[in-house]
Amino acid sequence: MSSTCLGLFESQDKEYSFRQFLTEGSDSNDERRSRMKKLLYIAIENELTQRQRDCIRMKIIEGMTAEEVAAQLHLSTDTVYKHIRAGLKNLRKVTCYL
User: Fold this and answer.
1) If you compute the radius of gyration of the chain from its CA atoms, what whole number of angstroms results?
2) Of 85, 9, 19, which Cα lies nearest the Cα of 52?
3) Are 36 and 98 in contact (CB under 8 A)?
4) Burial letters for 8-27: b for 16+ Cβ neighbours within 10 Å, e otherwise?
5) How far apart are CA 35 and CA 28, in angstroms?
6) Please, what are the domains in the chain?
């Protein structure tokens, strides 16, 4: 992945940095951040499967535990993590273009 790609996934705590990007608005360039968020949400909608969207939304954006997500979606915890990894991999491909 290119080092110029948003910096979303460069932190060791990848899920936190992704959630932080989507939820915090304390950036000095709010207009650009807002545009990037909109584009990222479009990418989430168009590039991910429904399961990947559900797992990422619940675990990363809403902050649920993997066990809570698994119980709600009737999946195993390992499957939740599998969907999250696959979804983030797909998003890494498109975030370079934001």
Assistant:
1) 13
2) 85
3) yes
4) bbeeeeebebbbebbeeeee
5) 14
6) 14-95 (1.10.10.10)
What is the crossing angle of helices 14-23 and 77-95, to 10°?
Answer: 60
Q: How far apart are CA 2 and CA 6, in angstroms?
A: 9
66-81, pLDDT tens digit by residue?
Answer: 999 999 999 999 999 9
Q: Identify the DSSP state of 29.
A: -
pTM: 0.66
CB atoms within 10 A of CB 94: 16
In the three-class reduction of DSSP (H, G, I as helix; E, B as strand; rest coil), residue 3 is classed as: coil
